[in-house]
Design a protein that fits this description.
Elements lengths: L8 H4 L11 H8 L11 E14 L2 E14 L3 E5 L6 H9 L6 E6 L11 E4 L12 H11 L4 H14 L15 H14 L4 E5 L7 H18 L2 E5 L3 H7 L2 E5 L4 E8 L9 H13 L4 H4 L5
Parallel strand pairs: 2-9, 3-7, 3-8, 5-6, 6-7
Antiparallel strand pairs: 1-2, 1-4, 8-9
Helix pairs in contact: 4-5, 4-6, 5-6
Length: about 300
């Protein structure tokens, strides 16, 4: 098989195969043609009373009782809350992987949330890449799935590898990469589709503190450069304040939105507004000084 070819079932079911490719032809057709109703408006995502449940053995458990918020184009919106509150579940519902039990989600003027290249997903797990493909082939693969010619897909992949500092690693395989480099590849692969939204499910949660801080800075710079909208799940208040424009705070399960906090324009830890906002987020999450000792600093 030549590099860049679109294989059959092996890739379709391989790790990360659903990242942005599943449903791509339908999404590209529906959203790549005429401008949808409301496309010129600032709101990209509207979540209205979303209720999400799952079945556990013989009972139905409600993860998210009611979530209501909206997200503007080019915004970085952070989802934060206690463990098990449904942050990742809500993100997967926006991606189209999980159906709603109630309420509605509208994306780019559409209620059809069939997974497609307009919403590219980056997960926390390092094994979301195809191990038998090189870095370049991993990034080019979704582009081939959505119909790009091999040469075009390669050129686009190379551009985003350069943007994420991976040009020198283009011919390596995932097992030859560090955790941070693997996440860069996953981000490059998602960005290469030029999605309307990048959905990120704690992508830096398994990284060491130094690598995590570096990737946060790089992601922020890339978002400023590409103007991609980002919906980002995190359990870290500091990460939310570092990367986000606004922070949606979910309560304990079955969760509701407790508050939506604007964190734009805050200075560093020496800024009284920064300290006040951080304290407010801590209070919303019910965190004590003992809980935060050595964690949120």
């Amino acid at each position: 098989m030549e590099a860049g070819d679109v294989p059959g079932e092996r890739d379709a079911e391989g790790p990360g195969g659903t990242m942005a490719a599943r449903g791509s032809e339908r999404g590209a057709t529906e959203r790549g043609g005429a401008e949808p109703t409301g496309a010129m408006e600032s709101v990209l995502l509207s979540v209205d009373g979303a209720r999400i449940c799952y079945r556990l053995r013989k009972q139905v458990v409600t993860a998210v009782e009611s979530a209501t918020f909206s997200m503007d184009r080019h915004e970085r919106l952070m989802l934060i809350g206690p463990s098990g509150c449904g942050k990742s579940t809500l993100l997967k519902a926006v991606a189209g992987f999980i159906p709603l039990a109630g309420g509605r989600i509208t994306f780019d003027g559409h209620e059809d949330l069939t997974p497609g290249p307009d919403r590219a997903v980056v997960f926390q797990e390092f094994d979301q890449l195809f191990p038998w493909r090189t870095v370049l082939e991993n990034v080019a693969y979704p582009l081939r799935v959505v119909g790009r010619e091999r040469s075009e897909a390669r050129a686009i992949a190379e551009r985003f590898l350069e943007m994420t500092g991976l040009t020198q690693a283009a011919d390596r395989h995932p097992h030859e990469l560090s955790g941070g480099m693997k996440q860069r590849v996953a981000i490059a692969r998602a960005l290469a589709l030029e999605p309307a939204m990048l959905l990120m499910d704690e992508p830096f949660g398994s990284l060491d503190a130094i690598t995590r801080a570096r990737l946060q800075r790089e992601l922020k710079a890339i978002a400023d450069r590409t103007r991609v909208s980002i919906l980002f799940v995190t359990h870290s208040i500091l990460e939310a304040m570092t990367l986000g424009d606004r922070v949606v705070v979910l309560g304990s399960p079955p969760s509701r939105v407790l508050d939506i906090v604007d964190v734009r324009g805050l200075g560093g830890p020496g800024d009284p507004r920064y300290v006040e906002t951080q304290a407010h987020l801590h209070e919303l999450l019910g965190a004590t000084d003992e809980d935060l000792s050595g964690v949120e600093g």
